[in-house]
């Protein structure tokens, strides 16, 4: 039998004993997060018809969701670092589930946009809270695997959504799809309260350590080049994923001529690949760490290889048949997910415990802003030209993301490194 995880005093850690149960609930929270948001993209052909939306109009309601998502992460990480992931994720789950259900009542475009904005506010808390929970529960060598595991919930949610959501939309309506997916979130709350203890004995950096330079932590973070490397890398990199999340069904419908039922049978394939990419990326960096490579350099090595693979994205446009296009899209999102498992873990390697969720939140804001810009540009380009320039633009993003990620190698230590392994 494996020995229980110990804290700094050699005592068994309550969170350490149940760390994989917590990681599993984080996986389920991420799955529900993506199941709820995938309703929007999967019913987009119907929404565009019912609301009379052009590609530009559709980009505006997607941007409303991303606006709530981006702005909330700007301060959510700071709150999570203070109140902890238990309460933060509980409130977030209740918020976005309720907002998703109420979205079903929208009859005007402005109502739809406003309710999606509120859903984005709740969903924004999920990633910084989850990364914070992983940082509290797992030692550095296991964090990328745990992050990859919970983050694969996004891919699994995206895999299940085409079957589940399209069935509800075809049999009933898109409104029923929003209501049912929102209701499921309430079932998650009880096991979360049971499994994640209200108080824990996790190792934490002291306030004196955080303030040893005499400046507030936010000022320290703002002058740290490594933090800006994470922020800018996510600004460019996450835009690739968000494009496929919100535009893939529309692309399959309008360019490849897929019906709603065929979309339901095929749109899951790239996201299954994404789930595998999360596990592969996290496992590979974990192997490198076990072989003696410093944690941050191990993450960065996997990220750069993944970024190089994503450059092949523009080839989607040249695929003569849908099978080849879906295969290449699957390869790109597999590579993105390998990247994501490591960039989400990187803050726990670079910064102190009380700054992890803050950094993830700031970088999540950048990711949301990048996704907003990409979405707005994509809508206009698609309306006036086609998807071709969009795919070529997506091919440039991983180059920018990889270059920015190199900033995390900066030797400047303006903020304490992560707390010792628990």
Secondary-structure topology with pairs:
Layout: H1 14-17, H2 19-42, H3 44-50, H4 55-83, H5 85-103, H6 109-123, H7 126-137, H8 140-171, H9 174-195, H10 207-210, H11 217-222, H12 225-254, H13 260-266, H14 269-290, H15 295-310, H16 322-343, H17 346-350, H18 356-384, H19 388-405
Describe this structure in words.
The chain is mainly α. Helix content is 77%, strand content 0%. It is built from 19 helices and no strands. It has helices at 14-17, 19-42, 44-50, 55-83, 85-103, 109-123, 126-137, 140-171, 174-195, 207-210, 217-222, 225-254, 260-266, 269-290, 295-310, 322-343, 346-350, 356-384, 388-405. Helix 4 (55-83) packs antiparallel against helix 5 (85-103), helix 8 runs antiparallel to helix 9 (174-195) and helix 12 packs antiparallel against helix 19. The longest helix has 32 residues, at 140-171. The protein is globular, with a radius of gyration of 21 Å. The protein starts with 13 loop residues before the first helix and ends in a 17-residue tail after the last helix. The model is unreliable at 1-13, 200-216 and 414-422 (pLDDT under 50).
Number of strands: 0
End-to-end separation: 19 Å
Q: Summarize the helix and strand pattern as letters.
A: HHHHHHHHHHHHHHHHHHH
How many DSSP H or I helices?
A: 19
How large is the radius of gyration?
A: 21 Å
The gross shape turns out to be: globular
The biggest beta sheet, please?
none
Low-confidence stretches: 1-13, 200-216, 414-422
**Level of helix content?**
over 70%
Strand content: under 5%
Helix vs. strand class: mainly alpha
Mean pLDDT: 81
């Amino acid at each position: 039998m494996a020995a229980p995880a110990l804290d700094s005093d050699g005592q068994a850690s309550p969170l350490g004993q149940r760390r994989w149960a917590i990681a599993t609930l984080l996986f389920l929270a991420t799955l529900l997060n993506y199941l709820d948001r995938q309703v929007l993209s999967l019913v987009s052909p119907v929404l565009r018809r019912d609301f009379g939306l052009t590609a530009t109009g559709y980009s505006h309601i997607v941007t409303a969701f991303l606006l709530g998502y981006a702005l909330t992460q700007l301060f959510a990480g700071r709150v999570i670092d203070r109140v902890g992931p238990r309460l933060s994720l509980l409130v977030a789950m209740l918020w976005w589930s309720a907002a998703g259900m109420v979205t079903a009542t929208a009859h005007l475009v402005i109502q739809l946009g406003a309710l999606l904005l509120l859903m984005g506010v709740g969903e924004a808390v999920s990633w910084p809270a989850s990364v914070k929970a992983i940082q509290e529960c797992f030692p550095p060598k296991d964090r990328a695997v745990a992050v990859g595991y919970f983050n694969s919930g996004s891919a699994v949610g995206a895999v299940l959504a085409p079957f589940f959501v399209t069935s509800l939309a075809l049999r009933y309506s898109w409104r029923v799809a929003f209501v049912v997916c929102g209701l499921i979130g309430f079932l998650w709350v009880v096991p979360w309260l049971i499994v994640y203890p209200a108080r824990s004995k996790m190792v934490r950096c002291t306030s004196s350590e955080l303030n040893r330079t005499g400046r507030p932590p936010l000022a320290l973070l703002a002058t740290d080049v490594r933090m800006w490397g994470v922020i800018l890398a996510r600004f460019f990199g996450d835009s690739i994923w968000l494009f496929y999340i919100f535009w893939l069904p529309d692309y399959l419908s309008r360019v490849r001529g897929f019906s709603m039922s065929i979309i339901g049978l095929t749109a899951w394939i790239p996201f299954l690949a994404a789930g595998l990419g999360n596990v592969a990326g996290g496992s590979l960096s974990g192997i490198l760490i076990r072989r003696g490579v410093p944690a941050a350099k191990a993450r960065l090595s996997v990220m750069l290889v993944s970024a190089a693979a994503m450059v092949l994205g523009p080839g989607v446009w040249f695929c003569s048949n849908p099978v080849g296009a879906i295969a290449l899209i699957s390869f790109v999102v597999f590579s993105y997910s390998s990247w994501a498992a490591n960039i989400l873990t990187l803050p726990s390697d670079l910064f102190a415990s009380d700054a992890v969720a803050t950094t993830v939140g700031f970088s999540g804001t950048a990711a949301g802003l990048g996704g907003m810009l990409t979405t707005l540009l994509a809508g206009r380009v698609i309306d006036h030209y086609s998807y071709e320039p969009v795919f070529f633009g997506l091919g440039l993003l991983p180059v920018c993301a990889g270059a920015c990620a190199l900033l995390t190698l900066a030797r400047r230590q303006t903020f304490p490194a992560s707390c010792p392994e628990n």
